[in-house]
Every structure is written in structure tokens, then in C-alpha cells.
Amino acid sequence: MNNSKKIILVSPRGFCAGVTRAIDVVLETLKKYGSPVYVNHEIVHNKHVIDDLTKKGAVFLKNIEDAPKDRPIIFSAHGVSKKITNYAKDNNKTIIDATCPLVTKVHVQADKFYKLGFKIILIGHKNHPEVEGTMGQLPQDAIYLVETINDINELNFSGNDKIAYLTQTTLSIDDTQNIINELRKKFPNIESSPKEDICYATSNRQKAIKEYADKCDAFIVVGSKNSSNSNRLVEVAKKAGCINSHLLENAESLNLSNYSSSNIIGISSGASVPEILVENIISKFQKNYSLEIENVSLGEEDVQFKLPKEVRK
Fold it and tell me: Could you give the C-alpha distances from 24 to 62, 188, 303, in angstroms and in order?
């Protein structure tokens, strides 16, 4: 061994309840209906998970119109617009909705605000499937996307407008709070959901990384490039004081030479990441260094969501 390193393994990490449920929905649908089953969009944003489910008979579609009418269609954990729901109802015999219940909660709140006559602001990332699904619950002129504080200046509401905001469930807590503070300055009477829209798993993973990142010389967040919550974790680690923080898909994308001068390395993972990917990265370090592994945790998670009735045992 040429030298030793310490790994701080941060929890909570990995699968949240919504992701576990979504993957189970696909597996149970395959069991019940056989393969292939069709999924509108990637069920969750993780390449390893998608490859595994593809091998088992799931087909992931960019466009719902490509789904055969006689096979089950599953909506991904990110949720879908009313347009897609209506299309599926008209064209597909079996619809199974794997939308995370915490995303559904935002959809329900959007609808409530709309029926009460509010103009609605959604804080989120353009083109993210969750944002498309939430905005697609309402007519175009009823909901406005705000990605940054600068976008607030573009909002043209009249003095009489009732205004409310919602947020994507996988945003940075701190960045979102800054946007909310600016919205409150500009619109002192703005309303919000009775409960936080950013989900428990996003909050918990960010808080844990915030707590431990500044104790590390480098930080690895395991996750896919298209995963919003994983990308936010890298930003949180950097802001918490570990500038040398990176998103890695898997052990293959780990270049050990990048960590030769790092003595303490933090590791966590996004909410759609199977633990095997974290274990493989640790194994790669273990083959080259003598490792001390410290497990740290900021609270336990015991949230579970019931499967949709179509696939409940």
C-alpha cells in the first residue's frame, strides 16, 4: 500500500421512498403483465437503474405516442402533465402511475391555488420532467417558471393579482430560500403551500452533506448527470467548504489519480442511486489504499409509500 486515506461515508444517502416505490412499480408490473412494459420517460434519473430495468423488459419512451395501446404504460416518479394523462386515458388500456406522492402533493396544491384564482409561480429548472409535469397541470397563462432571482424582475403582475408560489421537490434548500425571500420582498402577500414542497429526502441529504463536507479534502456525490437532486448535492458540498466536490456516475468514472493528494474523502449519493454504486467506488479505493471508513449520519429515514392499487399484492 502506498498510503492511507479516510473515507467519511455520509447518511442519509441513496434511494428515497419515492424512488423505491417507482422501481417496485416497474418490477411488479413486469411480474403481473409480463414484458415488455412501457414507461413514459426514465422512471428515475439513474443510468444503472434504467439499464437494469431495461434488461428485465422495461422500455423507456421519450414520447408517450410510441407506446402500444395493448401494453401497460407507467408514468415516471417525476410526474406528467394533464396532456399526457389524458392522452394515456384515451389510448392505453392499462395506466400505472408511479409519480412520487410528494410530487403529486405539489400538483394538488397547484390545482387548489388555480381554483382559488391565484397566479402561480413555480420555482424550478426549465425542461426538467418534474417541472414540465407540474406546469402541465394548469393552463399556460396560470403558472410562471422562476429559475433564478433575475427571473423575478420579468414577472408582470397587477396590484390586484393574488399570487402563490410552489417549488420543484429536488432543489437546493438555500438557493430556493434566497429566491423565496426576494419573492416575498416584491410580493409581500404571496402565499405558499401549507407544507414545504422540497421533499424530505432532498432536504436530509443536503443537510447531512452540509454538516460534513468542510471536514473533507474532496467530496464524491454518486449520481447521474441528469439527476437534479444529485447535482444539487455537489453544489451544497462546494458551498459548505469542500471546493473539490464532484458528481461521479459509478466506479468506472472514478479516476484515482484525482484523489492522490486528498487524505479525507467524503462520499454520499443522490436519491435515485443504488448502494452498490457507492460500494464499488469504495472497493476501487480499497484496492489502492489502506482505508479507514467512518460512517456518519444526520438522522434516520423511515418513510414508505404504498404501491398503486393496480400492482398492489
Answer: 21, 43, 15
